[in-house]
Amino acid sequence: MNAPSEAFLHDKLQALQAQADEFIAVRRDIHKHPEMGYKEYRTSDLVAEQLEKWGYAVTRGLGGTGVVGQLKRGTGGKALGLRADMDALPIDEATGLPYASCNTGIMHACGHDGHTAMLLAAAKHIAQKATFSGTVNLIFQPAEEGLGGAKKMMEDGLFKQFPCDAIFGMHNMPGHPQGHLVMRDGAAMASSDNVTITVEGTGGHGAVPHRSADPVVAASAIVMGLQSIVARNVDPQEMAVITVGAFNAGVANNVIPQSATLRLSVRALNREVRELLEKRITDLAHAQAQSYGVRAHIDYKRGYPVLVNHMAETDFVQQVAEELVGKDRVVRNPRALTGSEDFAFMLEEVPGCYLLIGNGDGSGDGHGACMVHNPGYDFNDDNVAVGSAFWSLLVERFLPA
Ligand SMILES: [Zn+2]
Ligand SMILES: [Zn+2]
For the chain, N or C: smaller number of CB within 10 Å? Predict the structure, then answer.
């Protein structure tokens, strides 16, 4: 924290600061041993061992390497879920830190080491010092980076085995001052879909185009037509992205190829817009292909949905945040992010809120401002105390004794 006045140092923050060193060491240990999605064997062992030590009922195997720690206390009938992600990225670390990755080509460049450590630090405090009545489910998920570990845990019965009245998740964010808490109601992060359009024509000699059906011209018309969807079909007040990131066809100047392939990244911040984009892209590609006498095959792969925070839970997160760090370190409703996040799947099934914790804005020693997924990124260890204090206070306020 950038020197809050004593009056603002919430007792929860003091308590979690007092045990922060233990979990900064855990964070650095996880950082040094990063593991890719669904291969978080060492990390999930470490998480499970610690949770067991503090008296949690530990369930393993959901989503492969996922871990759930459950703690019930008192007679309260409510349950909540707190979620952290554990996976790393295929990046060569360039920080030069003493605890830099010892697994070549793999790096905790998104701070999931920190998310895991913050939730573990909270787990210890919740078990040993917190006052609450009800059920706490701590969800450590695998494979957030593109592989949908959240969905996999749900398919394996996460919310059937561990029903939750609300769920909460937290991601660090460079560019916001360290320890500031940021939340947005409604759509907060974009959906992300991957589409492959294969245009099947009839190949032939470049000198006799009338004896072939040219997939290059047809695919070019599709690329141009796609631009009209965002411009002419989507409400101008809504956000939508259709990027044709790859166009592959042909090998020689005098050969009309048999096929052409387009690869698209499609994003939206509204579920209806997402549906509209899928329908229009599909219809337009088929119709455009037909008009050129070729055929379009469309492989529409839905990735992560729009992340939509629920209003009541976002209000609640704001209240807890303001109580913990003070109003001037809380930001409500910044602009939505165009990145995507698989916690969105969980929010489709259970009400909740995904918030951000500032990793640093480059002020002071400049620590923490380097963007996630950059080889120079590092999680800001000062957030171990703030993040775990936030989780602990949220449990006490959500499940009052
Ligand atoms: Zn990431
Ligand atoms: Zn991340």
Answer: C
